Amino acid sequence: MKDVLTSDHSELYDTLTARRYFAKFVKIGGYLGRVAAEMETEGRLSRTEARVLGGYLKAVAATFQALSHKYLMTGRDDGATRLTIDRHESGFPVAQELMTMAVDAQQAERHLAGMPSEAELKDRMVRQIVGDLTIPTTLQFALAQRYYYEALQAGGIFWARNDPDAQWIENIGERRHFLVHWAVWDTQVNLPVVYLMDLEDSGRKPLPSDVFRWPQVQAALMAQAIGGLKLLTIATGFDKDFADLHPKRLRRITLGPMYSASFTLQSGPISKVLEGAKAPEGQDWALVWTVEDLLAEREEPVKDGWFSSSQRQVYKLDPVAGAELGATRQDRMIILPERPYQVLVEQDPKGLRGLRKFVVGDGGRLIPTL
Predict the structure, then answer these.
(1) SS3 label, residue 272
(2) What are phi and psi of 150, to 5 degrees?
(3) Using CA atoms, how far apart are residues 231 and 226, in angstroms rounded to an integer?
(4) Strand (E) positions, 66-205?
(5) In 10 A of CB 93, how many CB atoms?
(6) Is the pTM of this model over 0.85?
(7) Superkingdom, according to UniProt (predicted)?
(8) Burial 137-151 (b: 16+ CB within 10 A, else e)
(9) Cα–Cα distance, 155 to 148 (Å, whole number)
(10) At what angle do helices 47-70 and 15-41 cross, to 10 degrees?
(11) Is 71 helix (H, G, I), strand (E, B) or coil?
(12) Would you kindly state where each structural domain of the chain is located, as residue ranges?
């Protein structure tokens, strides 16, 4: 059941608006992978990390592609539903949309089995157009729904929950180094969030093939995948719960919010930037990308019984924000077209000075700035 709309939520009522919304995200999604590639070039992501993050970015794009089929006939067919987006400090679909998709995916095979084929639907459309001289709206809706269920069946979607996976990196002495990654569509902020954890495994069996530890690790990490929790809280709790797993680094990458003069309600300096840009449709947006990073400074033995001890991590915190941030550092980036960027430079708002800027120039070139 769909949540009751709040003042922060908005339904896209007509076909043109819905298609413009999805077209905007298709365009933005094409730049996200380039930002990840730039971070790899700068040494801020390893090749493995960039590949893993790129996989999640493709999954987000696949989610929007599937939703664009589902809502293709918005406002044109009586049976068509409407997409609900969070228009305040998100710009993305509400989390309930992702939860509904997960339910639909479980029934995709059954739905497709009961639908006419693509060729049959198109043939019926032609006969209705030629024979009845009417627009085959109902058939168009049926075809759009078929495309939706085919996309869900194909997979590669960013779900509300994307359970942890582990990638072996190297052996460090008697320990194994893994990159563990997972992701969620955070219900508090209605944004896709990716987690990357570098951990060393001193257990007898490699973590992913350990039928006892791995399910416990997956459950623990998913339970802590909440935007309101500090990285320090997540890492120290994990370090305490698993004596033979040593989290050396934890990163949280929040993809969004997306701001748009057409679809979202802005406040603060970004509102003045987009208002001042008066950019044409397709160039009236900005997307913020936040990376929180927590690094272990050293390891110390801690007694955990009368005659035993275990190694615990001591994490390095930001010298200014400290425990309030709960991380070693936080980097925020903003991707925006050239015209809003020019206004941003002219206005130079204090609240946006610390953000790394990526500018979309002529021909779709992505230009990193200092």
Answers:
(1) helix
(2) -65, -40
(3) 10
(4) 84-86, 161-172, 175-186, 191-201
(5) 24
(6) yes
(7) Bacteria
(8) bbbbbbbbbbbbbbb
(9) 11
(10) 180
(11) coil
(12) 9-154
In Å, what is the CA distance from 84 to each residue of 44, 68, 161?
35, 12, 19
Identify the H or E element spanning 285. Answer: strand 285-303
Contact 250, 224 (CB under 8 A): no
* Contacts for 212 with CB less than 8 Å, ≥ 6 apart: none
Residue 142's H or E segment, with its range, is: helix 137-154
Of the candidates 157, 3, 4, 161, the one whose C-alpha atom is nearest the C-alpha of residue 69 is 157
pLDDT given at position 164: 98
Indicate left, alpha or beta for 185 from its phi (over 0: left) and psi (-120 to 50: alpha). Answer: beta
What 8-state DSSP symbol labels residue 320? T
CA distance 327 to 325: 5
pLDDT digits (tens, 9 = 90+) for 303-361: 776 667 788 999 999 888 777 899 999 999 999 999 999 999 999 998 888 899 999 98
How many C-beta atoms lie closer than 10 Å to residue 89's C-beta? 19
Tell me the residue type at 249: R
DSSP class of residue 265?
B
| Tokens (6 digits) for 91 | 């710009």
What pLDDT does residue 306 have?
A: 66
Measuring CA to CA, which residue among 130, 128, 219, 165 is closest to residue 53? 165
244: its two tokens: 């033979």
Of the candidates 92, 263, 61, 59, the one whose C-alpha atom is nearest the C-alpha of residue 161 is 59
Separation between Cα atoms, residue 74 and residue 324, nearest integer Å: 44
Q: For residue 276, what are the contacts with CB-CB under 8 A and spacing of at least 6?
A: 343, 346, 347
Give the sign of the dihedral formed by CA 110, CA 114, CA 119, CA 122. Answer: negative
Sign of the C-alpha dihedral computed for residues 112, 142, 99 and 51 taken in this order: positive
CA–CA separation, 240 and 49 (whole Å): 25
